[in-house]
């Protein structure tokens, strides 16, 4: 088994009943003990948090998440509520919000559909139907258009993560080069078909061949050839094919290092990668930006919200 690369692990001497009581006490009485809540919930794995929810309801006859919501506020509340959702439900709810809110939040669609494994996306589609009361594909089709929509739907339907077709590597690379040649009329369809239908493993080899033959990075060609959402989505697919942790390191950096922190992106990534590849993201972040993710979060956030994010980050590099 590959070593675990998350920063959030199962708590060793876990007792769901005891934790439920600690949370109850932290919320009862005058003033809420936010520290207890944030330290406890960030040091339990998602599965353990689900067990705590069950025990809390048994003991107190009410929903733990509702209780937390009534005690907390602001970004801290949003973060804690996110931590209490099973990962696939969280993805589904983020997509639903992105599609059903005012205007479409394309960045969320791009991030989730470009970075998740085929198995995860399949699960998200099922949970979306069950919990959000709609069909994800139908909602995406209703809210997006053109080639952006086409590539999103392909990613939604992609059936394999693995596998390389050796006979196609060179051919795919040459097709991409030819498709990107005419700067004015880029053959976007060619790009979409290859990016939307090949495994990450296969794409990495195609990009290497592309560079060897054309002398350019595929990213440069995409940036020169297309714009807007489609460009962002294609670049996300390319970056995730090369390295998912590096893709998230860059997204985190961009969410913080600008005027005004993009807290929703920051939070979404810290919550959804905590039990996946946070250690790799931290390593990429340090390598790419010469600073640790931990200190960057520290400089960019405040209060209980900031503290909870630092716990999720899991350490300073």
Automatic annotation (TrEMBL):
Gene3D superfamilies associated with the record: Annexin (1.10.220.10)
GO biological process annotation, one example: negative regulation of coagulation
Family named by the database record: Belongs to the annexin family.
GO cellular component: cytoplasm; nucleus; plasma membrane; vesicle membrane
Comment field on protein domains: A pair of annexin repeats may form one binding site for calcium and phospholipid.
UniProt-recorded name of the protein: Annexin
Domain of life: Eukaryota
Organism: Salmo salar
């Amino acid at each position: 088994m590959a070593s675990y690369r998350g920063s959030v692990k199962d708590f060793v001497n876990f007792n769901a009943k005891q934790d439920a009581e600690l949370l109850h006490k932290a919320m009862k009485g005058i003033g809420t003990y936010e520290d207890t809540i944030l330290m406890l919930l960030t040091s339990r794995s998602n599965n353990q948090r689900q067990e705590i929810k069950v025990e809390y309801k048994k003991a107190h006859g009410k929903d733990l998440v509702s209780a937390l919501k009534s005690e907390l506020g602001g970004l801290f509340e949003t973060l804690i509520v996110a931590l209490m959702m099973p990962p696939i439900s969280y993805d589904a709810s983020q997509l639903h919000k992105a599609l059903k809110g005012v205007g479409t939040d394309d960045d969320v669609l791009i991030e989730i559909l470009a970075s998740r494994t085929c198995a995860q996306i399949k699960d998200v589609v099922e949970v979306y139907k069950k919990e959000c009361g709609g069909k994800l594909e139908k909602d995406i089709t209703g809210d997006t258009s053109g080639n952006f929509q086409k590539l999103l739907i392909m990613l939604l339907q992609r059936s394999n993560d693995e596998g390389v077709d050796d006979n196609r590597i060179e051919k795919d690379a040459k097709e991409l080069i030819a498709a990107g040649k005419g700067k004015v009329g880029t053959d976007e369809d060619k790009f979409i078909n290859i990016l939307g239908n090949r495994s990450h493993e296969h794409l990495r080899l195609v990009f290497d061949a592309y560079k060897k033959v054309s002398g350019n990075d595929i990213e440069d060609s995409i940036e020169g050839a297309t714009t807007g959402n489609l460009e962002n989505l294609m670049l996300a697919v390319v970056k995730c094919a090369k390295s998912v942790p590096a893709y998230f390191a860059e997204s985190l950096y961009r969410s913080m290092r600008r005027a005004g922190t993009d807290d929703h992106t920051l939070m979404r990534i810290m919550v959804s990668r905590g039990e996946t590849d946070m250690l790799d993201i931290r390593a990429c972040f340090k390598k790419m930006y010469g600073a640790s993710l931990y200190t960057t979060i520290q400089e960019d956030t405040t209060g209980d919200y900031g503290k909870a994010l630092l716990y999720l980050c899991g350490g300073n590099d």
